[in-house]
Design goal:
This protein is of the alpha/beta class and 150 residues long. It has one domain: Nucleotidyltransferase, domain 5. The chain starts with a strand and ends with a helix.
Length: 150
């Protein structure tokens, strides 16, 4: 089974505004294998962070996978909150509908279907992690280019 480390990041110019989600796929030794970025016209930063994590799960569905994100919303959501939301029919502890439910359901289904070890790690953004910095640059550039084109 192959092993990958995937750095994810999302960016949004305005919140809501134009945004982009990016991933950087690396070997465990840190060699970049590939990069992917996609821009979206009307979105939020949280949705872009989630779209990046979803893309990571899709790229490496059958692998030993570590997903690294600077979004505590993504990391806490998928590792801590999602199980409770599922049990409560996608309602929060305050009995309100979970925001971004469509993406949480997709991410949850992909994570549960993942074939191989799956680890989620948080990294502080803009603190020198080369993979995180690269994903951030990709996402910001794509969001800015889409904003200028509109």
């Amino acid at each position: 089974m192959k092993s990958y480390i995937i750095y994810t990041d999302g960016s949004c110019k305005g919140n809501p505004g134009t945004g982009a989600a990016a991933i950087v796929v690396c070997t465990p030794e840190g060699e970049i294998i590939t990069e992917f970025v996609k821009a979206y016209p009307d979105t939020t930063n949280n949705r872009m962070e989630m779209q990046a994590a979803i893309a990571a799960l899709k790229v490496a569905a059958c692998s030993d996978l570590t997903i690294i994100s600077d979004s505590q919303y993504v990391i806490k959501g998928i590792t801590t909150w999602v199980e409770g939301w599922r049990k409560k029919d996608w309602m929060t502890s305050q009995r309100k509908p979970v925001e971004n439910r469509d993406l949480w359901e997709e991410m949850d289904a992909l994570a549960r279907a993942h074939q191989g070890p799956l680890e989620w790690k948080w990294v502080r953004g803009h603190h020198g992690s080369p993979g995180n910095e690269r994903a951030d640059t990709l996402a910001q550039t794509a969001a800015e280019e889409l904003a200028k084109a509109r």
